[in-house]
Design goal:
This protein is α+β, with helices and mostly antiparallel strands and about 240 residues long. About 50% of the residues lie in helices and about 25% in strands. The chain has 3 helices and 10 strands. The strands form 3 sheets. A 4-stranded antiparallel β-sheet has the order 1-10-9-8, with no helix packed on it. Strands 2-3-6-7 form a 4-stranded antiparallel β-sheet, with no helix packed on it. β4 and β5 form a beta hairpin. The N and C termini lie far apart (about 165 Å).
């Protein structure tokens, strides 16, 4: 009986220690797995942190390069604006305006038409001031319209060397009816015909100014509105050039 109890206790202790060892082994394995997983996690976090730091450094470098590029573009834009302003100022100083611009355009037209440059230079060099001009001559004539073409519609100057004629826009009554005389505020066409047949025109609203050079004489014509139906023509004659 005593022997049986002793065997029972020994088997119970053996089972107890066997279970304890198994538990400890399992616990050790679990701890090892947990420690391994923890280490893996730490390594992943470190690797991710390193990658983020590298990426942040790259972004910082790219931002610095972009800032330098923007600064360069701003400097280039400022330089371009400065150059544009300088060019505008230079053009304003050097490009002719007013009468000088008109004179330059006329010279360009004459050169394009085949006139030699030395001839233009000669003509300009011969122009003198003051000019010995004759006393202006004033005449008037009835300016015809498409609805009226009567007598006294031309005048001659310089003993018939130049004949002045033309046509105007008909005037209208307050009710809109066409009148027999021209409208002093409307468009007119004044023709200047030389004895040889050459004809030039001046178009626009009165007063009009026109120059004709004939037989070594420069005729400076001024056409203004006169009494109803009439235009006044003034011819100032000066030696040319």
């Amino acid at each position: 009986m005593t022997l049986g109890l002793h065997d029972y206790e020994r088997r119970r202790r053996r089972r107890f220690w066997g279970s304890t060892v198994k538990f400890l082994l399992i616990l050790g394995v679990l701890l090892a797995i947990g420690l391994f997983a923890y280490q893996m996690g730490v390594e992943q976090v470190k690797g991710r942190e390193t990658g983020l730091l590298a990426e942040n450094a790259q972004l910082g470098q790219a931002n610095a390069e972009l800032s330098r590029s923007v600064a360069g573009l701003r400097a280039a834009a400022q330089n371009a604006e400065t150059k544009v302003s300088e060019l505008e100022a230079r053009l304003a100083r050097e490009l002719p305006t007013g009468d000088l611009a008109r004179l330059t355009e006329l010279a360009r037209e004459r050169l394009a038409a085949g006139v030699e440059a030395k001839r233009l230079v000669f003509v300009l060099s011969q122009i003198k001031t003051p000019r010995a001009c004759e006393k202006p001559e004033n005449k008037r004539f009835i300016l015809p319209t498409p609805v009226y073409k009567g007598p006294n519609s031309t005048v001659g100057f310089a003993s018939g060397a130049i004949t002045v004629s033309g046509e105007g826009t008909p005037a209208r009554s307050p009710t809109g009816n066409v009148e027999g005389w021209f409208d002093p505020k409307g468009l007119v066409t004044i023709r200047f015909t030389e004895a040889g047949g050459r004809q030039t025109e001046a178009k626009g609203t009165l007063p009009l100014h026109h120059t004709v050079v004939s037989a070594g004489i420069e005729h400076q014509f001024t056409v203004t509105a006169g009494a109803r139906s009439f235009v006044e023509v003034t011819d100032e004659r000066c030696p040319f050039p």
